[in-house]
């Protein structure tokens, strides 16, 4: 019984004395808001590389200072994405413009004469004789729009 109690107590003390989480930040990241303007370009680029490596890890493991330093890294790939979206929109608008210029306004089958001829053809073929164009007393327009 005493052995179990001593073992149990030793595991409790190990867990109490053991530090579970460690902060990843170094002193340069800790006060980045105040130090950013004073850093040289080489220090800024090395700090950005460190931050990029830290950002690849689990976001929950990062300290508050690491998360605060993220806006100082720059916009990332946002510019490339915006340029890509703009290019796709420009290409689609160019395609729409070219199709409007090269394609005639109306197909020949949408003229009134063509539609009236279609009505006559449907009447001669007795199409839809119950409720349609060939029925007795039909008063609709038929295929004329």
Question: How would you characterize the overall build of this protein?
Answer:
The mean pLDDT is 80. It is elongated and about 105 Å long. The longest helix is centred in the middle third of the chain and has 25 residues, at 78-102. It has 7 helices and no strands. The protein is an all-alpha fold and 145 residues long. Among the domains are: 2-73, no CATH class; 110-135, no CATH class.
Task: Quickly describe the structure.
The protein is mainly α and 145 residues long. The protein has helices at residues 2-17, 27-30, 32-35, 41-55, 64-69, 78-102, 112-124.
Gyration radius from CA atoms, angstroms? 38 Å
Weakly predicted, low-confidence segments: none
Number of helical elements: 7
Helicity range of the residues? 55-70%
Which structural class is indicated by helix and strand composition? mainly alpha
Shape: elongated
Family: Belongs to the cytochrome c oxidase IV family.
Subcellular location: Mitochondrion inner membrane
Protein name: 17793_t:CDS:1
Pfam families: COX4
